[in-house]
Amino acid sequence: MECKWRPQTRPSTQRRPSQPPTQSPMTDVSPGGPGSAGQQAPHAVDEVFDYASFMWEGGDFWQQVSPEMGSNVGLNTHIMGTDAQLRFPNMVAPAPVTYGTPAMRSNGSAADKPVVNLTGDKLMEFFATSANPPILEEVETQKKWVLMRQTVVDMAKHSRMLHCAILAFSAILVGRRDRSLVVSEENHYESAVARVVEYDQQSLVEHSSERECLLAALFFLAYVDILEMKLDAGHSHLQRAYKIFQRCDKKSFGALEKQILLWLRLLDGKAVSAGGDGLFLSKADELFLVEASPGSFDGGDTDDLSRQEPAEGDIEDVLFQVLYQPGVVFYQKVQSFMGRISKIDPWHRSRGTVEDETEVMNIGASIATDLRNLYDHRPPLMDFAVAGKLQQPHVSAHLAFVITRAFRTYLSNYYASKVHLHRVAYKTLPLTKEAIDALDNIRRLVRQMVNEMDTEDSLPINMLWPLLMLGAEEQDMGERAWIKETILRMERVAGNARITAQVLEEVQARQDTAKARMDIRSVMLTVFNACFAIV
C-alpha cells in the first residue's frame, strides 16, 4: 500500500537558471537574502533590475511558501447580480480571503486539493524572503526592499502588532495566489487592528520604536484593505497614519519612518481614486516627504541601518538610484495631482450648481497650470529615457531598460492626470487640444513599452490608471480591443486587471449609449456593488 495524500510535486518550469535544483522552497531568491543584503548572487544584477520577476507570477517567488501551491491565478468568486451581467456573463470580482478550516471555505475546487495550513512562522518566513510588492515596483529597487524588509522583520520580533500585520499581509497574498489554502486558523488581521486601536489615544510625538512599528503596521494593513476592497478600513488606517504624521514634529522622523510614509503616500494615491481623502497628497506634505526625502533608505540615519562595505555589482545599484531618483520625485508629485483632482469630483464636494461648476473650473484651471509647470521642471534625463536614447556605452543594457520603463510609466501617469482633470472638471465639454495630446502621448508610450516587452512580460502595475483613462476616451473599436487586451495581459501583476477591463467595457458601452461621459466610480458601484482602487 502506498499513501497518496500528498502528491509528489514537480519542479517549477519558471525557476531562474541561477537557482540550484536542490534549493529549499523557502530559500531567498532576492539578492543578498534576508539576512545579508550586501551579498550578491551570481545574477544579482538581473535580480535587482528585472522588474518582471517582482510580480505575482507562478514561478519562484510564490513557490517559496509551499510546493503544493497551484498555478491557477484565477479568482473564482461571485458578485451580486446586475443588468451589466447580461453584457459580462463571466464577470468576476475579487473577494476577501477567509480564515478558518476547509469546511468554512466555499471554494468548490478546494475539495480536490491537498490542504496546506500555513502557520504564523511559515507566513513570516514567506515575507522574509518576499520580492518587491507590486505597488512599489517602479519606485523602489529590489535591493532597497531587501534592506527595508530585513529591518521590518527585526522590528516585528519586538512588536506583536507589526508581527500580526505582516502575517495578515502575507496571508492575503498567499491566499490570492491559491484559494484552496487554509492560510491560518488565527485572524492575524483582526489581531493587528486591535493592537493598532490601542494607540489611538497616544500622541507619539517623539521618535520611538513604537511609532516606527505603528506606521509600518498601518502600511501593511492599508495595503491589505486596498487589495481586499475594504476601502472604509483602508481609509481609516491611512487617516491614522496621517494623524501621526500631522501632530508630530517633522524633525523627529528618521529615514525609516520617512520611507514608510512615502509608501503610505503611494497607497493614498491609489485609494483616492476609490473615494479616499488623499490626506498625504497635499502640496505642503509633498514638500516634506518628496523634496526632502533621502535618495535611498541606506543613505539615512546610521542608527536605522549601518552602511556596508561596497560589494561587487553595487556600483550598478548606486547608479540606478542616482539616475532614477529624480523620476521618482516627479512621479510622487504626479500623485499629488491625483489627490487635488479627486477632491473636486462629485464624491468629494458638491457639484451641479452654477456656483459649484464655476468654482470647479477655476480650480481646474489652476491645476492645469501647475501640471504644465511640473512638466517644465521634469528631470533632464526623462526626455532621453522616454525616447529610448539610453544606450551603451553610456549605461548598461539593464540600467537602460529599467530606467526607460520607469520614466515612461511616470510620464504616462502625468498625462493620465490631464485626462482625469478634464473628465472631472469639464465632464460635459469636448476634449481640449491639451487633453487630446495627452491621450496621444499615453497611447504612444504604451505602444513603445509593449513593443519592447518579451512575449511573457506585461506592463507595470502603475500603467493600469493611464490605460483606464485612455480607454475611457477611446472611440475607435480596434484601439479599444487593443487596450482591453493590454490590460488583461497585466493579470499576473495586477490582481484586478480583469475587473478593470470589465468596468472599462461597461463605461464605454454606457458612454456610447448616452453620448456623454460616465463617472467610473459610479459604474463600479452599479456593476460590482463595490468600489476598488486601480492597483
UniProtKB/TrEMBL annotation:
Pfam families in alphabetical order: Fungal_trans_2
Record InterPro entries: Fun_TF
Species assigned in the record: Emericellopsis atlantica
Keywords in alphabetical order: Nucleus
This protein's name: Fungal-specific transcription factor domain-containing protein
UniProt GO BP: positive regulation of transcription by RNA polymerase II
Region entry Disordered, spans: 1-42
Superkingdom: Eukaryota
